[in-house]
Protein FecR C-terminal domain-containing protein
Amino acid sequence: MRNRICLALAMLSALAGSPLPAQAQSRSSSVLERKVTVTFSQAPLESVLQTLRRQYGVRISYSNTALNLRQPVTLSVQSQPLRTVLNAVLADKNIGYELVGDQVVLHTVRPTKTKPAPVSTTSPSSPASKVAVPVKAPAPKPTPTKPAANQPTEAGRSPATAKSGTQSVKTTGPVVAAVAQDTIAVKPTAAPDTTANAAEPEPASSARTRQAQVSFLGPLGSNGLRSGQTVNKLSVNVLGGTSAGVDGFEAAGLFNITRDTVKGVQLAGLANVVGRHLDGFQGAGLLNVLGGTGTGWQAAGLLNVATRPVSSVQTAGLFNYNGVAKKLAADSAQSQAAGPVSARKSVQAAGLFNASIGEVRGVQAAGLFNVAGTVHGVQLAGLLNIADSVDGVSIAPLNFVRRGYHRFEVLNSESWAVGANLKLGGSAGFYTFFAGAYDGFGSNGQRWALGYGAGTELLARRRISLNLDAVALHVNEESRGWTDELNLQNQLRLLVGFAPFKAGGRVRLVAGPTVSVLVTQRYDAERGQVSSSLVQNRSLWLDEPGARTSVFGWIGYCAGIRF
């Protein structure tokens, strides 16, 4: 019953939009003669229909509940008519199609064993004339044999129907897809369980296309109540408007709502909402919301939200959010047939933070923090980076990467009896660390320091490693608590690590030379000058005392253990 209602509505829509039968016939005929090049391997039928609709502009409508759209399709054609492709795709699936205007309507077909009927063709100019074309009766079921390399296989026995204006062509019996260049192979295997990765359902009714439209608010415009079912090439909404899609340019004073796809430019003073896909530029004063994937540029004054990854650029004054990618069986089959495809780079830039639940390839930059799954590129934040893994660098005062570089060191040097470093980074290629030191054992005056540094692993072998670290320590002296004056020890370390217990182990003995430069404005009452106890008994290569600021330099050592 639902199929009949869907078919009746489609026929009424086509008849209302068709000014002349001859024009409708020509347009319908051209639809089925469109050249199609596709490759599928065990792809769900629903994904195949989506691909035909998206790549070749074929308007296909069907009922998601009445038809089994999980049936697998294996097909490979090049430059073949749509009619041939549909016959092959729908073979042995108990599904037929009718062409109403320029719209393909799918419906269920009950298997029948009746004799094939002749093909009757009625011309609109001469309704009484009929041309009967005999159709070969179904032959007895042959013994299964392997088809030849270039021999097309039988596409199936599902009846197919095509209607255009007042012309109708009905065929029953076996349908053979004759392909000149490539072989159409349809494997009648059991449908795989694709519940978890099922494709997003297509709407039952296809959209119409209009060159231009103007509206005040919602249906108050040139498209009227059908605004939500119309794809506009040029759309101007005084306050706000809705549409099925945009294939060109759309602008609104307040908001735009598109239930399917935007190809081109979409501008709004307040917000843009797109249901499925963006291919172009989307700009809004407040926010952009995307219900699927995107390619191009999303720019918003406040925030961008996308439920699926967005390639290229995403910029916002406050934050950007990207959801996780949805893997479809059809996408996997197509990617395997087409070979490896390089992923597109993307840029996320926000004044406050970025969140990308899935994969980031490119740059993720924010004023406060970044959150991502897997990063292939650069994470840059003013405070914090969080990720599962990083193939590149994470640059921030704090970097928490679950599968990153985490090390703790306990050291001794010529300046400090004991020191400690906590190193965190996305990879060994770049990490940051917090440093602390203390020296107050025995009769010497107590002093302690806190600092921050960055480093990189220059060499990594199973037994040997080489690290270069730079650290700045604020030195507090003479048990006076915190020293308010500038008293900064800047140190460069070259540390050689050795794994004594296990090759490739985390525990390593480290040692190496250091170069220190102390910049101080602390007044030393005992010496009567601007100085520090750190330079006592040192062989200085740099000694520049001053009335307000003194600079000293020396060479030392650093040794300890790394965990």
User: Anything to note?
Assistant: The chain has a mean pLDDT of 77.
